[in-house]
Amino acid sequence: MRATSRDSADILVVGALPPPLFGMTVVTAEMARRIGERATASVVDISPGGYRRGVRYHLRKIAGVVRSWGGLLRNRGRGVLYMPLDGGWGLLYNASIVSLARGLGYRMFLHHHNYAYLTRRSRRLGLVAWLAGARAVHIVLCESMERDARRRYAGIQDARVLGNAVFIGVAARAPTHPSPGDGLRVGHLGLLGHAKGTDLAVRSVAALRAAGHPARLVLAGPVVSRGAAEIVETARRLLGSALDVRGPIGDQEKPRFFGDVDVLLFPSRLSEAAPLVILESLAYGVPVVASGGGCIPTMLGHGCGVALPDSASFAEDALDVLRSWAQNPDALLRASTRAAARYRELWSVDAERLEPLLEEIVRSAEHREAPPRPAAKPEPR
Questions:
Q1: CA-closest candidate to residue 7, choices 365, 290, 371
Q2: How many CB atoms lie within 10 A of CB 236?
Q3: Closest Cα to residue 354, out of 109, 98, 154, 10?
C-alpha cells in the first residue's frame, strides 16, 4: 500500500491494519490514510490476520517485522517512522524495529494503545523507550496516560495527548432513547468472551430482570473461543427470549445496534486504554456503564455514563445504575443527551490536536536531507 501527495517526504507507517478489527488496527489504518493524504507514505502491514494466537500468528507477525526492516533500509537517512506499539511480548517485535530505526537515524512517532504497561512497569516497554531515545514522540490517549507514562519511564520525555474520538467517523446523533418503553434495552458489543466481560453483562441483565424490571440484552460481536460460546449458551438459558444475539456487525449495522439499545455495558477485565466502542456509543447518544480503568473515567465524565472501579463486583454495581435508569426514564434521557454532547466535546478536542501532530510528522520528513543515491544502472536491452 502506498499513498503519494508530496514527493519531498518519506514516512514509513508500520503497524497492524484490519483484519482483525479492533481499536488499534482501526486507528492505525486511519492514521496511515491521513498521513498519506499529506505526504509520500509507505505502509507495512504487520497484522497477524486474526484473533487467535499460535504458531501461525507469530510467523505472520515475524514476516511483517522483516518487511518493515526492508522499508527502513530503503528510506535510511531521511525517514520518519510512525508505529503503534503492541502490548506484552509483542513489544519485542516493536523493539527490533525501533532499534534499527534509531540506528538509521529515523525520527520516530510511537502510538500507545495499551494501559497495562502503565499501571505497572514493563521491562519490555522500558527497552522500547530506551532504544527509541529522547527525541522519539510518544502519542498517548489521555492526560492520565501521559502522566503515568512519564512517571514510570524515564525514556519517555516527549509525550503528546491525542484521543481516539476523531478516528471513529461517526457524527454525534440526537438522543433517541426517551423511555425504556417495554423495558430497558441493554447492549454489549465487542469480541465476546470472558476478557471483555460478556459474562458480567449477562449477569447484570439477569439480575435486573430478577429484581422485577423487564429488560433485554443485545449481544453483538464475534465468538472466537469455546469459552465465549459457552457464555452465550448460558445467556440463552438465563434470558431466553430476552436475549438478542446478532453476531459480528460492521459499520453499516452499528446504527441499528445502537438505535436498538438504551445503554451499553462494557465490563472489560482487560487493561483498557480508550475503547472505540465507548466513543461510538456516546456518539449515538447511548450512555455507558463500564469498568473504570485507563482513560475510561475521563471519557465518561459529565454524566454521560458511569465508570465502575472494580470488575469483580461489576454485575452488582451495574445493577444499581441500570435499576435507576429503568425506574426513571427522565434520568436516562438526560444521560443520553449528555452522551452525545460529551462525544462532540471529545471529538473537538481531538481534532484540534490531530492536525498539528500530522503536520509535525510531515515536516519531520521534509526537513531531513536525503542521502546521496548511486547512479541508476542502465537497463539491459
A1: 365
A2: 12
A3: 109
DSSP result, 110-171:
EEE---HHHHS--HHHHHHHHHH-TT-EEEESSHHHHHHHHHH-TT--EEEE--SGGGS--P
Residue 213 near residue 323, CB atoms below 8 Å: yes
Residues paired with residue 80 on neighbouring β-strands, in sequence order = 11, 107
CA-closest candidate to residue 31, choices 249, 89, 18: 18
Q: To the nearest 10°, report the CA torsion of 274, 276, 278, 283.
A: 130
Dump pLDDT digits (tens) for 294-353: 999 999 989 999 999 877 799 999 999 999 999 999 999 999 999 999 999 999 999 999
The residue among 164, 3, 80, 99 whose CA lies nearest residue 360 is 80
CA–CA distance, 282 with 235 (Å, rounded to integer): 26
Which residue is it, cell 505502509?
Answer: 43
- Beta-carbon contacts of 234 under 8 Å, excluding residues fewer than 6 positions away, are 199, 202
pTM here is 0.90
Q: How far apart are CA 348 and CA 338, in angstroms?
A: 15
How many residues are recorded in the chain?
381
CA 252 to chain CA mean position, Å: 19
